[in-house]
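Subject: for your reference before the review

Hello V.,

The reviewers asked for a structural picture of the protein, and I figured it would be easier to keep everything in one thread rather than splitting it across files. Below is the amino acid sequence we used in the manuscript, unchanged from the supplementary table.
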Amino acid sequence: SVGVASGRTTEIREAIAPWVAPAQASVGAFVAEHGGLRLAVAIRMLNNYRTEVLAYDGLGELPALIELGFEIELLVQGPPEADAQAAFRETLDKRGCTLPFSVFPGPYALADMLRQGRYDLCVVADSSRDAAHQAGVPMLSTRELAPWLGGVEANVAHVRRALSEKPTRS
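And here is what came back from the structure prediction:
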């Protein structure tokens, strides 16, 4: 951590103290109310099928979503072949991500994946808004959550709003 690296752990803890209790309370209340909901996180590979891109693209918000108590499954856009799936798993494992995942071949298949998964919420690229709507799954756009401790309360409120906006399945 920054505190350990700088030798100023005590000073940093004191500086962030005003935000810690409200953030913990907000997350705790959300988990008590919504913990265990199913969440799909769609990861697009930018059509380059490079597994090293997969490791960085779309995974940044996972720690916050895990902390909110969601049961998460990754939906990976890419080739369905076993060797590609093994490469995805290896790359995810290297990043410390052991979440289950399913592969879908392209954007045209995302609505069906979301529908079949019976998810309560999804995180998808804004360009996939129609797929989420067709599946009747509330969504957050990727990279929509604010970073760090200062964003926790706003993020919880944002996720609550998304869950309340249940689209009609087509």
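For the response letter, the relevant points are probably these. The helical segments are 2-6, 9-34, 51-56, 62-67, 82-94, 110-117, 129-135, 152-164. The longest strand covers residues 71-77.

Happy to draft the paragraph if you're swamped.

O.
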